[in-house]
Amino acid sequence: MNNNNRAEGILALLIISGIILAAFSPLLANHSFLWDDELNLLQNPRATSPDLNGIIRYWTEPYLNMYIPVVYSAWSLIAMAGQALGLHDGGGPLSPWLFHVVNLFFHLINGLLLYLLLEKLVKNKPAAAIGALLFALHPVQAEAASYITELKTLMAFAFSVGAMNIYYAYKLNPKKNGALPIGAAAGAFLLFVLALLSKPTAVVAPVFIFIINLLVLDWGCKKSIKEAAPWFLVIIPFLIITKSVQPPYSHQFVSSMGERILIYGDAIAHYMAKTAYPAPLGIDYGRTPQNVLNTGWGYFAWIIPAVIAGGLLILGKKARPYLAGALIFIAGFGPVSGLSPFVFQTISTVADRYMYFSMAGVSLIAALIIARQPHAIVKGVAGAVLLALGLLVNLQVRTWDGNENLYIQAIKANPNSAMSYNNLASQYMHGTTQGLMFYHRAFTLKPDHAVAVRNLCSSILSMRNEHPAQNLRFLVRPEDQFKAVSYYNYAVNLARTEDYSQSLLWMGKALALDLFNPKILNNYAVLCWKIKDYKTARTLFELAGELYPESPDIAENILLTLPRPESSDTKAENLIFFNAIKTG
């Protein structure tokens, strides 16, 4: 590289850095832990009181059913640094500001690393810069960059693309004849292992390499497989580790592979839509497998991406690099696409943070277009798009400044977000009339949302104790009570067939309509006990007992459950479950 090229490269890196920092500048004033940050950090004694022993334990055992020691170790080191500097802007032992700064640092590094990779692939610095900025500035990236918990995604991407840069620096260098020295191979291997130890979704990196080799570099199928094979071999032990540390997943939302493919197709269509029009954005899109399959759209969403992919194939060899970008986009969220069920699907199969790796495919397409069409008007349009994205992502990052802003934005994006109504009420309105309304709204939207009904009932108990004269019957409409009985009876029949998950859902629908019915409260509590949700069961038994103190059956259930510890050996079949209510 001559001096001019080196200077141009450094200037490009500086410009990209400045633009990214300006767009994400609100993070430098963010002093909030958000959402599950409390679980991963504030309730984690190894984070609040970090030491070397705690860091070592991350490497010897999983934490919260995840084996990602690199990220947990990084959080411990950040906590140590914050405490050493005396930073306590979060009001506790940890400094959320410092964690946000580290997230921003890694997002910035990822933009620079992607620029270096794209420059190797398209051989055009302005095109590579535009592609990298598209990746970094797109509003869907605000979630991963702003959400402290998602440092795992940022680090996994950084190590993955760092490894790919080493690999292609030698493979595409004519002076090296495509040979990868042992030192470089070891460096790439180490970075890729660190990526897998940051977040298991880094398993998509070998897929990216195979796609690039086959369709962008045109190495042919045999050579592409040979080159990608060592990368795929590396991921095997990490797949085994990930599978072994995760508990058996009891909620299999989709029974057939055909239905899971439909879910994947819907996810592709959703992510394409958010890429093209990134608004409104939120943490809960409500696209659960049930919701997708219960709408006609869920069976046809795959057609749009299939038509686009088919069109690229028809266009032939010239379109192959663009097809590579499209396939990288689709592969990037493959581990959380719904092909294999995962926990967050109870809320939504899709989430902005799952797009982080995928946006590399979009950036590749953009870089290819600019490199092949280097006209001033094309660059002008690209500049205008980047300016708009930069302004939008700056606004989106601001919605991550505090949980209240976060949940309000989530409700704007999805008015049916039960999780957001529940979380907003629990953090800011518990024990208030507005909080009751929000809990009730969450429970009505998702009748098997045990946390929402527990919060709702505990809030009612609190308000009845503090304001016994207050009438809380505004939560129930008399005209809904007959429908509630129908739901209740159906739930009772489902329970007799031992279909407890569906029974809980329908009993929840009944309870949402007739909240102060002690029989419905009792039976919902029994069903919670059957699925081992003892905390919710006890709260509902307590409320049922207050509403119906003369019932010996409810009193018996309370005696069987409330005095016992969480590890109670009380069997669900010993609890009294009310029969169907006669109507007519």
From TrEMBL:
InterPro entries xref list: O-mannosyl-transferase_TMTC (IPR052346), TPR-like_helical_dom_sf (IPR011990)
Regions crossing the membrane: 9-29, 97-118, 177-197, 203-221, 228-245, 297-315, 322-342, 354-371, 376-395
Native organism: Desulfatibacillum alkenivorans DSM 16219
Taxonomic lineage of the native organism: Bacteria, Pseudomonadati, Thermodesulfobacteriota, Desulfobacteria, Desulfobacterales
Keywords: Membrane, Repeat, TPR repeat, Transmembrane, Transmembrane helix
Keyword Transmembrane helix: yes
Annotated protein name in UniProt: Uncharacterized protein
